[in-house]
Amino acid sequence: MSVKYQVGQIVEGTINSIKPFGAFVTLDESTQGLVHISQVTHGYLKDINEVLSVGDKVKVKIVSIDAQTGKISLSMKDAVPKKPVESAQSAVSDKDRLEDMLKDFLKHSNERQAALNKRYNRQ
To answer: Which residues form the S1 motif domain (predicted)?
Structure first.
């Protein structure tokens, strides 16, 4: 196995099992590895089932091979380069969404505080 696959190598595999912590990828008839959920995408991923399904063909980079156990750690996000333009646009839209959420929160918070003040000042 160590001769066939090397750390840093990018290969294609098939998702054969999905767990909350990651996905198992079949590399060939006798070899499989694990893509941890943190290695699926460049951003935060709450539910791995949102982006992966059993049977999907995926490109993965071999991150590590444990010589004693033969376990292979894989990364999907390292197999595909991150696009800096998209990430900059994404960061801007994330910032805008956060600002909108904060404005809504403050508005509702102020409305609730005003309602409470009004209620207690009348009694």
So the answer is: 8-77
Domain ranges of the chain: 10-75, 83-123
Q: How many CB atoms lie within 10 A of CB 35?
A: 27
* pLDDT tens-digit readout, 14-69: 999 999 999 999 999 989 999 999 999 888 888 999 899 999 999 999 999 998 88
Four-way CATH pick for 10-75: 3.50.50.60, 2.40.50.140, 3.90.190.20, 1.20.1440.20: 2.40.50.140
| Tens digits of residue pLDDT in 85-100 | 555 556 667 778 888 8
